[in-house]
Amino acid sequence: MTATTTSRLPDLSGSAFNLRSFLHGLPGVDKVGVEARAAALGTRSVKTSAKAAAIDLAIRMVDLTTLEGADTPGKVRALSAKALRPDPADPTCPPVAAVCVYPAMVPVAAEVLRGTGVHLASVATAFPSGQAPLDVKLADTRDAVAAGADEIDMVISRGAFLAGRYDHVYEEIVAVKEACGSAHLKVILETGELETYDNVRRASWLAMLAGADFIKTSTGKVPVAATLPVTLVMLEAVRDFRARTGRQVGVKPAGGIRTTKDAIKYLVLINETVGDDWLDPDWFRFGASSLLNDLLMQRTKLTTGHYAGPDYFTLD
Prior knowledge:
The chain has helices spanning 16-24, 31-41, 48-60, 73-84, 106-113, 134-146, 158-162, 166-180, 197-209, 228-245, 260-273, 290-304; strands at 62-65, 98-101, 119-124, 151-155, 184-188, 214-216, 250-252, 286-288. By secondary structure, it is an alpha/beta fold. It has one domain: Aldolase class I (TIM Barrel), CATH 3.20.20. Strands 7-6-5-4-3-2-1-8 form an eight-stranded parallel β-sheet. β3 (119-124), α6 and β4 (151-155) form a beta-alpha-beta unit. α3 (48-60) runs antiparallel to α12, α9 runs parallel beside α10 (228-245) and α10 packs parallel to α11. The relative contact order is 0.15.
C-alpha cells in the first residue's frame, strides 16, 4: 500500500530513460500490507437489502466472454442473445456490459448486438501471447474494429516489459490505441506473469500513460489470473493517475472470478479504494463466462426464495 505518487510525469517526447526513471520512481508496494488489506476487505459482508442491487450491478459489469479454439458461429450467437437477455424468464434482469470474442467472431456477434447498447469487445494483438510483429497486431486491431468491435482488449509484450524495454511496450500501446479509432482500448497486463506487485504498478502506469481506457489483469490463459491484491494495486494506480492527470481509467479483472461472493468482494474493494465513481460498467468490468450463471442463480434465489439450479441457465 502506498500514498499517492509524487513522481513527476515523464517527458515522453524524450528518451526511454525518462520513462524508466519515472516507473522506477513510483512508490514501492508493501506486499504484506496490500495482501492484508485485500484479505480484510474480502471478509466484508453486504446487507441483504443491498445484495439485490449488488448482483444487478455485477451483471451489468460482466464482459461475457468466449475465447476458445472451438468457438462456432452458433455458440457466439447464443452467447450474444444471452448477453441481451440473461434470464429469459425475467425481463427485469439487466443486460451485461459486453460480449468478448476472437476477431473472427466479431461479425457474428455484431449481427446480434448492433444497436442494442451492449458493447462488442474483441481480443487482438496476437492474444494471448502478444508475440507477433507490430504490423500484425495493428492489422488484427483494425480488422476487429472494421467488423464491428467498439472495444479492443490488447495484450502487452510481457517479455519486453520484463526485460525493461518500457519504451517498446509504450510505443506499441500508443500505436494500437491509434488503430482503435473510436473504439475503447483495454490493455491486458497479464499480471500472473509480471512476478511482483511493483511490476503490476509500473505496468498499470505505463499503460495509462500510453492512452489505455482500461487496464485489465489477465487473459485467463495462464494459471494465475485475477486476484484481489493485484486488483487493489491496479485500483490504487487508477486513483493516483486521475489525481495527477484528471483522466479516469477503468479496471477489468479477468479470469477465475466465478461466484457471486467473489464479485461482491470486488465491489467492496472498489467502494473502499476508489469510491462510487468506479462503481459503474463504464469504469469497471468483470471478464468472465461462468460468473454470470452464478449471479443469475443468486438473483433468482432472492426474488423467488428458491435456487433455480445450475442447469436452469445455459452453460457458456
